[in-house]
Design a protein that fits this description.
alpha+beta, 33% helix, 110 residues, globular, four-stranded mixed sheet
Length: 110
């Protein structure tokens, strides 16, 4: 599972989101459940094709997030600037919502 964050190093909210990613429990959730991909959009002039491919409306502002499964299928794309002025708790809730479900019943014991 991939969590892709679209943004730029000039973006204060992007920098704050990155700080929240590094704090627990978010750091642990990311490590165990996701491959975090930072997509640099420059000044809205880089990797625009990647944002378009995953329906991420960077023209509405950044940071903007997408969740992509292991097969490249888009599971979630931010629409309404949900992570502008976010909180660590909101990031935790997001990660918990989109982390893969590990079904213990489907794991074979040997």
């Amino acid at each position: 599972m991939s969590s892709s964050t679209f943004g730029g190093n000039w973006c204060g909210d992007c920098q704050l989101l990155d700080i929240y990613y590094r704090q627990n429990p978010n750091a642990e959730l990311l490590t165990k459940n996701f491959v975090l991909v930072h997509v640099n959009i420059g000044h809205m002039d880089k990797n625009v094709d990647v944002a378009k491919k995953y329906n991420v409306p960077i023209n509405k502002g950044v940071p903007a997030l997408a969740v992509i499964d292991a097969n490249g299928k888009l599971l979630y794309s931010e629409r309404a600037k949900e992570f502008e002025h976010t909180t660590p708790e909101a990031v935790t809730a997001f990660l918990n919502r989109w982390k893969p479900v590990h079904n213990a019943a489907s794991v074979k014991k040997s």
